[in-house]
Amino acid sequence: MAFLLVGCGAALGAMLRYGINRFFEKRPHPYPFATQLINLTGALLLGIFAGLHLDQSWYLFLGTGLMGGYTTFSTFNFELFTLYRNERSLFYTYFTVSYGGGLILSFLGVWLGTLLI
Question: What pTM, to 2 d.p., does this model score?
Fold first, then answer.
């Protein structure tokens, strides 16, 4: 049952990520706005799910599945590497906003989740 929950959540998350990427592909820019938006909103949502103290089934579906399929660490690192080689100033911005913002939004999400209980 756990495999099914994670798999269904991951499929939905991947489709969401794909839709956001497609939206941003229509507006080309050297800065990877789509991945940053996806990963930052994913950090916030995962924090909220953690703060809600969901039961295991819901967390498998939403946290592990949905957010696992939605967020993307591999694309993030590839984009970091590409920016480091080609756009050094954008590299530092992307790195700082992604990691710093991700941590802040995760903590904010946990706090918001506890308020919603």
Answer: 0.94
